[in-house]
Design goal:
Layout (H helix, E strand, L loop, with lengths): L15 H16 L3 H14 L12 H25 L6 H33 L6 H30 L7 H33 L2 H22 L1
């Protein structure tokens, strides 16, 4: 812990000029957004991309998936920061935003890969591509992440409702494991799965996948209205 005592040889009293500017400095600090506000803003930014998609968003579905991976990395950073705030600040708005991402955006991403990318790869890949092992790893990691998310959702729902957690350590442990495994998973897909898809899939394959991804999100939006 850093000592609050002044260094040896320096006066206890602050310089007169510092005393004169202190009230203004306090006022400026009060108007600055808190760390928690910044985290909430970042979480809302992750969700905002759904509200105003560019016309060509799904013309290159592999690029969209890669961008989704970048958003997932940011979400992991938010989850890590969220656990640091858990004991010291009200986290209801941040818990709500994270919950929305984990129950909305993330499942859609997983469906993109399992319902569209996987069958297209199964049709196009050659034996030397080692697709069976690639898909086996993808499926295993998806299942692990689904399990971890299901555990986190229960606790995030409680926090989003303003209720205290009976066992906050459980959430801390699940967030830690999810963040670690998700970062590894996303990095592996960017290095292995997506380059293979880029190599093997045709323009028609990509157009079909992109159309299905767009329809999936339209359907999801209609269900939430």
């Amino acid at each position: 812990m850093t000592s609050t005592n002044p260094p040896v040889g320096e006066p206890d009293t602050a310089p007169e000029t510092a005393l004169e500017t202190a009230p203004e400095s306090r006022g400026e600090a009060a108007n600055q957004p808190s760390d928690l506000d910044a985290l909430i803003a970042e979480a809302r930014t992750l969700l905002a991309h759904r509200d105003s998609p560019e016309p060509d968003t799904f013309e290159d579905p592999l690029a969209f998936i890669r961008n989704d991976h970048a958003r997932q990395m940011r979400m992991c950073n938010l989850l890590d920061a969220f656990t640091e705030k858990l004991e010291v600040e009200p986290v209801k708005p941040l818990a709500s935003a994270l919950l929305e991402y984990l129950t909305g955006d993330l499942p859609l991403h997983t469906q993109d890969e399992e319902r569209d990318l996987r069958p297209a790869l199964e049709e196009r890949c050659e034996p030397e591509d080692g697709l069976d092992e690639v898909l086996k790893q993808m499926t295993k990691e998806h299942e692990l992440n689904r399990d971890l998310v299901s555990f986190m959702i229960e606790d995030l729902e409680a926090l989003a409702d303003g209720r205290a957690l009976s066992n906050p350590v459980r959430l801390l442990m699940n967030v830690k494991e999810f963040s670690e495994t998700q970062r590894q998973h996303v990095t592996w897909e960017d290095r292995v799965l997506l380059p293979l898809a880029r190599q093997r899939l045709t323009a028609d394959d990509l157009a079909k996948i992109g159309g299905n991804m767009a329809a999936r999100r339209d359907e999801s939006d209609a269900e939430t209205e």
